[in-house]
Structures are given as C-alpha cells and as structure tokens.
Amino acid sequence: xxxxxEDADIAYNRGICLSEMGRFEECIESLERCLRxxxxxxxxxxxxxxxxxxxxxxxxxxxxxxxxxxxxxxDNFAARNLAAVLANLEKYAEAVPLLRQVLATEPDDPxxxxxxxxCLEELGPDHKSEAIEVYKQIMTRFADTPLADAAVAGLNRLxxxxxxxxxxxxxxxxxxxxxxNTLERFADLPQQEVGQIVLEIARLGQSGLAVNDPDKRYxxxxxxxxxxxxxxxxxxxxxxxxxDRAVTQKENGSMATSENSVSL
Length: 264
Description:
Layout (H helix, E strand, L loop, with lengths): L7 H13 L3 H14 L4 H13 L3 H14 L4 H13 L3 H14 L4 H13 L5 H14 L4 H15 L12 H15 L3 H15 L12 E3 L2 E5 L3 H22 L12
C-alpha cells in the first residue's frame, strides 16, 4: 500500500473516496500525502480544504483554499468552496466576489446563487436590493425545490428587517457545497437504486433524524460510507426522483401513481 500511495493520482483518488464516505481524517492524510508528492496538485488542495471545513477546522480550511485560489484564480471549484468557508467565518465581503466569479461562468449554479444572496443579506441595507433580486431569480429559475424555499425565507427576512437571525437557522454553506457534491453521485445512480436509498432514509426518519447536526453520521445499507442527512438533501433527492418519474410517465403516456414519499 505504501508503494502504491507514492503515486499522486492514487493518493488523490483514495482521499476523495474517503471524503465521499465521510472519513475526513483519513481523507486528509491521503490528500496531504498527494501534495507532498506533487505540491501543484490543485484538486488535492481543494479537497483538503473541503475535508478540513467538514471537520469545522475552518481557519485551516481557509488557509488551504486561499492557496488553491491563488494557484488557480479561475478555478470555480476552489473559489466556490473558499467562499463557503469565508461565509461560515462571517467574512461575507470577501466571499461575495468569489461567488460572483462562479456565477459569471456558471449562472445555473443555485447553491452559489443562494450563498451570494445570504452574503449580500448579511452585508446590510446597502446590499438589500441586490440580495432581493438574487433571491427572486432563484425562486423563478429553481421553483419547487428546497433552494427556492430557502430563497423565500431570505426574502421574508429582508421584508421583516431581521438580518441578525439565529445562527441555528442558518445553513453552513460548506455543508451545502458538500451536500451538492454528494447529490451529484445520486444523479448517476439508476432510478430503482435511488428509490431504495430514499426508502431507507424514510425508515430512518420514522425514529427521527438529526438534520441540523452536521456532526451526526448515518450508515445506509443501500449506499457505502457514512453520511450527514439534512432535510434539504433528502428533499432534493425526492424532488429529482419525482421529476424523473414525471418525464418517464409523460414519455410512456401513463398516469402518475403514488409511491413511497419522504417527509422530514
């Protein structure tokens, strides 16, 4: 194993696999080994920053991700994750230009849009009108998704002037980015397999899920590794499952039928 790990690509791929499984301490070890072999391995530096952020080692994550952005200023993957860490550290003014950069080339990135809206909201009255516009765009372009619901909540806060909301109601943006990466894995899974995962989460939910505790991990028989399960992530899985089913039924000319659903 040690000889194999002398290859930077192998060390990187192992680290990313461990990250997806939620084994962040081991992930950090592999990615640091990768960077010792190849100091210019940009994706490994970003992955290391993400793992540190998930362990709430935010200051270290910030330092690593700043290095990644400095080395590759136009890398949206690095910029997006640095912005998330900066927002969690309440460095909103520094996060905004990074999120603008991402959205300039990836306008359909809803999580970056939501993050931009929240950062503008936190910057105060001078940025209120732009925050409102950003939230409205998310509502329109990503209707009937949990992110649209979050945008509505942002608009309601702005309308009431409640900018200093309780931190427990504010999502950790690094967790949202991590969740998005996890959901991208689900997008490649067969529909039947996604349904089995959703059903297992539903059964877990019958006894209650700690959806607001990013340190609480769950093991799924239908998916390797351990995961943080949030209401948003489950909602996104179910929403996508329903959309895919609707398309299939439309193509087949069939009527919709009721299947298992998840409510958290």
